[in-house]
Amino acid sequence: MDREQLTQDLPVGGQAVIEGVMMRVPGKIVTAVRAADHRIVVREEAYDPLAQRYRLLGLPVLRGALSFFEMMLIGLKALNFSADVASQKEGQVEQREEGWREQLALWATMVFSVGLGVGLFFFLPLLAAQLFGLQENALEFNLVAGAVRATLLILYLWAISQWREIQRVFQYHGAEHKSIFTVEAGAELTVAAARGFGRLHPRCGTSFMLIVVLFAILIFAVVDSLFPLVFGHTQSLLERFATHFAVLPFIAGTSFELLKFSGKKRNAPLVRLLSAPGLWLQRITTREPDDDQLEVALFALRRALNEEVEANPSC
User: Fold this and answer.
1) In the chain, how many domains are there?
2) How many Å apart are CA 22 and CA 50, to the nearest integer?
3) Does 255 fall in a domain?
4) How many other C-beta atoms are found inside a 10 Å radius of the C-beta of residue 66?
5) Taking the mean position of all CA atoms in its chain, how far away is CA 50?
6) Out of 102, 205, 252, 299, which could bridge 68 as a Cys pair, Cβ 3.0 to 4.6 Å?
7) CA gap 183, 306 in Å, rounded
8) pTM, entire model
9) Which domain holds residue 193?
10) According to DSSP H, which parts of 190-267 are helical?
11) Residue 314 domain-assigned?
12) Over the stretch 88-106, which tens digit does the pLDDT of each residue have?
């Protein structure tokens, strides 16, 4: 890919992992992890999203919902790889093949993570709003549930940010953002250049989570208002949970499209205003990286862009 083609619209994404960064560009995913012996261990894999392989799945909103679940699976695989590398002793680093046990563990982890997320950020806010006795007013009910959901999200992120291990992951998160800003600016992909960019990015997954929480208030209120008109009675807690869960893919897909739009129009005054809460939340989920961490993020990005990089650089 020519450097001249690198613009703000370049579809580069990433994720911080344990002692490393995963970078994603069209057709390829690269995960780079700093091993105990200070080498950078890399895994590359070809990947074409379902939305690109099947035209029907590329429709707006639908592609967003699919991308959300695809990235969850890709992110878990990258995390498992990084944990494997980080746990190996110095001088014993090797990449292990994924067998059926590893695949089963991956899916079990994904199911558990989704279940925990649904219980904590989905069912618990509904239960809280129910306890306030707001079942008859759809807007008030979902405003309270949304406020509880947003509060739980912020408290959860703040709580895990106190752990030293998570603080390092958040530093790599900052390194990922700085690296992407560097390539979007058309600058050289060096530590010195990346160091000067900010760590808060408008297309971050943290911003996506907040968009989902806020957009869900509106959609859930509409759904709850329509339910009595269709079925003739106010929802029970379980009925409300089921109907909200059913429209969650639509909310995720629409939020994904809004996030992409905000990334492309990031300098528009209205977009900057609407993006502010997500950028504020990134002050919790990102930290200033050191040069070693920037090197890992840039290494992954350069490999993803097919640029020549040293196999095992040292600092």
Assistant:
1) 1
2) 20
3) yes
4) 21
5) 18
6) 252
7) 13
8) 0.85
9) 3-304
10) 191-194, 205-231, 237-264
11) no
12) 765 555 555 556 666 676 6
